[in-house]
């Protein structure tokens, strides 16, 4: 299953079926544009012309079928032939308007008649018949599918970036693993040398095992304080889960966001337990990579 980004753009255009008796359908086309950016939930904003307001529920359903998460804007524009000017109202529309005007004026004699502009506006709104609405819905479905494909392509690029960061984190964890035992061994030898120096300064003999045992005990306590084996094990476990989710695909953005938080916690603990400059540098590099992961994951559906 593919991984989808929440960022994308698509557009589609459709024209109504042309009928010889309908002059408006041959002069109109519908263009649908979809823009999406990252968001915590699915948030759809519609920008529709007045004659297509009744399509709002169907348009929402068409977009929701392809998009699960993100802030999406759908814009519908009706385009008419500029050379032919405004579409001519059909005779049936004019007859209907004339009857309505006569009926209103029969009840309200002082009501003024419709102007040419008002007739054209009413005819245009009423002229958005089944053919124009069907074209708008067809364009919306094609546009939603194209947006899903664009988000899938962007998602594939994000997955490549995420996998690269995961491998870099694994390499850093591998570098950190041998540092702690080496540090403990050096510290153990240092404790023994200091105990021997203290005994020599006090004039005591160095043949007893008590100072050595005390030094080893202090070294063991030091090793427990700086041990990061559990943190590295959990970090690798989180990285394994991230790679599994990237391979499985689907709606993984929120799960990855949680895992990134856990990675950040392990890197912080690693830094707090650091007793060498090398380990501190590794912890800092890990935090930089984890932050880069977080920024990319914010764009995944």
How would you characterize this protein structure?
It is a single chain. The two termini are 13 Å apart. The protein has helices spanning 56-64, 91-107, 116-126, 130-176, 179-202, 210-226, 229-248, 253-272, 277-297; strands at residues 8-14, 28-37, 42-47, 70-80. It is of the alpha+beta class and 301 residues long. Residues 20-26 have low confidence and may be disordered. The protein has four domains: 8-86 and 127-151, Ribosomal Protein S5, domain 2; 91-123, no CATH class; 155-188 and 226-297, Four Helix Bundle (Hemerythrin (Met), subunit A), CATH 1.20.120; 189-225, no CATH class. It is built from nine helices and four strands; from the N terminus they run βββαβαααααααα. The longest helix is centred in the middle third of the chain and has 47 residues, at 130-176. Helix 1 (56-64) links the parallel strand 3 and strand 4 (70-80). The chain has a four-stranded mixed beta sheet with strand order 1-2-4-3. Helix 5 runs antiparallel to helix 6.
């Amino acid at each position: 299953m593919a991984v989808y980004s929440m960022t994308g753009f698509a557009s589609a255009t459709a024209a109504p079926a042309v009928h010889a008796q309908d002059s408006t359908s041959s002069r109109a086309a519908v263009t649908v544009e979809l823009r999406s950016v990252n968001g915590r939930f699915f948030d759809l904003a519609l920008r529709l012309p007045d004659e297509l307001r009744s399509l709002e529920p169907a348009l929402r359903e068409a977009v929701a079928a392809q998009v699960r998460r993100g802030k999406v804007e759908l814009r519908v524009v009706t385009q008419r032939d500029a050379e032919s000017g405004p579409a001519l109202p059909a005779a049936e529309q004019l007859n209907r308007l004339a009857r309505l005007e006569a009926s209103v004026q029969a009840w309200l004699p002082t009501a003024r008649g419709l102007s040419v502009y008002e007739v054209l506006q009413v005819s245009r709104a009423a002229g958005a018949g089944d053919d124009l609405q069907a074209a708008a819905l067809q364009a919306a479905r094609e546009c939603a599918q194209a947006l899903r494909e664009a988000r899938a392509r962007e998602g594939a690029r994000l997955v490549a970036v995420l996998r690269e960061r995961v491998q870099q984190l694994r390499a850093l964890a591998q570098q950190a693993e041998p540092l702690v035992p080496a540090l403990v061994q050096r510290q153990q030898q240092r404790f023994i040398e200091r105990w021997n120096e203290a005994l020599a300064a006090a004039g005591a003999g160095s043949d007893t095992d008590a100072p050595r045992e005390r030094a080893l005990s202090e070294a063991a306590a030091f090793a427990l304080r700086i041990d990061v084996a559990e943190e590295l094990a959990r970090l690798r476990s989180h990285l394994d889960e991230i790679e599994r989710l990237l391979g499985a695909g689907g709606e993984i953005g929120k799960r990855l966001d949680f895992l990134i938080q856990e990675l950040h916690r392990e890197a912080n603990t690693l830094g707090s337990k650091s007793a060498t400059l090398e380990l501190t540098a590794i912890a800092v590099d890990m935090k930089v990579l984890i932050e880069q992961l977080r920024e990319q994951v914010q764009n995944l559906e």
